[in-house]
Amino acid sequence: MRDEITYTADGHATSFSGPGAVNVFAMTILASGLVLYAETGMRPARGYTPTAMMDAARRYLGDAADGIKARDYRGMATVLRARVEAEKTRIAQGA
What we know:
- By secondary structure, this protein is mainly alpha-helical.
- It has helices spanning 19-40, 50-61, 73-92; strands spanning 4-7, 13-17.
- It is built from 3 helices and 2 strands.
- It has a two-stranded antiparallel sheet with strand order 1-2.
């Protein structure tokens, strides 16, 4: 299945189709949850503990997450957001 992200005229994503595009959405939400926890101590959902969020981020990032410390939530969010931008570019190019 081909990955595709559909945008509105003002640049907001409206749909994500294909496994790569859905991963972009998931990584975006995960990065937001990590920042929320770092800034407020609030978890996005009861079962989504800081450890679970960091583990999920490591699964998405693979080796790119190796240098990030266990409680560096903002650092992990930054790397996730960079991956999101790279994936958006890849999808837009049709690769």
